[in-house]
Design goal:
Structural class: alpha+beta
Shape: globular
Number of domains: 1
Largest sheet: 5 strands, mixed
Number of helices: 16
Helix content: 40-55%
Length: 402
């Protein structure tokens, strides 16, 4: 377990080093943009640094359009024939290699289908009984024995890492180093080390009858062709990244919302059916990932803004999920709010592959906390937790006492 908590320290250090934790509340900026209109021409620098701060710097970054309202966001996300996911080839693709994240149409469907069965709702329910809930119970009881600690470092992060790596089929020995390499947290000179380690794992699995993701990928074919080692490694890296970062952040945001409101926390203690409401509301209120990227494939128009072929379009799902035209008092975390579909898990054919797993993890975690640690509360002496960030949003620490 020390290896996993040390892994979180690497994530924390990476964010500190790249100034990813200085953005406290970009929602105010995005609210102003919504009041002006649904679509705004901007640049990658302004998108990631803020409209105001970036004006002091020479801006030579790629122009782009930011979509900030719900209806217009759905237009982009659901229209795969016009808005392509290939935009990710220049970001995640450069680090991980080509994956279904950046694919469209038949290519996307055929590659995503290879692992989709591992993340189906009924399979995730089996995971819950088999290892998700027992692991959540084990992690929270360790914290309870210490009378408290940081829920992010010692609970939400290790839960997400250990769940996704078990589904993938990674060995427990050296797990922290494998995940660090997959997430791009290892030094550049460790590149070949990581590739060699994953290749060794894949080679061993080719001769085994394993039922995990790696076992599936070693036997998988696309149009009659077996996947190469590099393709399987890219698959694994994508699943580690998307199975760790968004789930631990969304769970941390959920617990921050609940622990910051004694009345709502008391409500789910008395009525656990409200936990599903709380999870859905949390994903609307503070989704872990802010932007979804698309490239325009042909001239088109959204809300009066004209796009040309090749334009980069950034769908701000955090802003769209707080669209005042769709939700009343959208800035408020309210588990009693009547449910309306949101895009916290994306939308269209690229809706999050792990949406059912994320729901299972969050539900198990919340249930275990209220059942096993009914007196849990924020440790105010350690400071009130803040949800921070622009591209990714979550509390960096969530100190509690039991």
């Amino acid at each position: 377990m020390n290896e996993i908590t040390e892994l979180y320290d690497l994530v924390f250090e990476f964010e500190q080093r790249n100034n990813l934790t200085i953005w406290k509340n970009p929602h105010e900026e995005w609210s102003r943009l919504r009041n002006v209109g649904p679509v705004h021409k901007t640049s990658m620098l302004k998108l990631f640094r803020g409209e105001d701060l970036s004006t002091r710097e020479m801006d030579t970054t790629q122009p782009c359009y930011q979509v900030v309202t719900y209806d217009e966001a759905m237009v982009v996300l659901k229209n795969e024939s016009v808005f392509s996911a290939s935009a990710y080839g220049e970001s995640m693709g450069r680090m991980m290699g080509r994956t279904f994240l950046e694919m469209d149409g038949y290519e996307h469907k055929s590659h995503r289908h290879l692992v989709q069965s591992h993340f189906a709702r009924k399979i995730c329910e089996l995971y819950n009984e088999d290892f998700v809930r027992p692991l959540a119970r084990k992690l929270i009881m360790r914290l309870a024995h210490r009378q408290g600690g940081d829920l992010v470092r010692s609970f939400t992060f290790p839960l997400s890492v250990l769940v996704i790596t078990k589904i993938i089929g990674l060995p427990s020995a050296g797990l922290g180093s494998l995940v660090a390499w997959a997430l791009g947290l290892k030094a550049e000179d460790d590149g070949e080390w990581g590739r060699e380690k994953f290749t060794e794992i894949i080679d061993r699995r080719r001769g085994e009858d394993s039922q995990d993701v790696i076992g599936t990928l070693t036997k998988a074919t696309v149009d009659g062709r077996r996947l190469s080692d590099d393709e399987i490694i890219s698959f694994i890296r994508l699943l580690i990244s998307t199975g760790t970062e968004p789930p631990y952040r969304s769970l941390s945001n959920l617990l921050t919302g609940l622990l910051s409101d004694r009345i709502q926390l008391s409500s789910i203690k008395n009525d656990k059916s409200l936990i599903i409401n709380a999870i859905n509301e949390s994903m609307r209120w503070e989704p872990p990932l802010t932007w979804v990227l698309r490239t325009c494939k042909e001239p088109t128009e959204v809300a009066g803004t004209k796009f040309t072929k090749g334009d980069l379009v950034c769908v701000n799902i955090s802003s769209a999920n707080r669209d005042e035209k769709r939700w009343s008092m959208p800035e408020k975390f309210d588990i009693y709010r009547p449910y309306k579909p949101h895009i916290g898990m994306g939308g269209g054919v690229h809706t999050c592959l792990g949406q059912h797993l994320a729901m299972i993890e969050s539900k198990a975690a919340a249930e275990v906390i209220v059942e096993r640690c009914p007196g849990v509360h924020i440790d105010m002496e350690a400071g009130r937790p803040e949800i921070v960030g622009r591209g990714f949003r979550s509390p960096r620490v969530l100190p509690v006492r039991f």
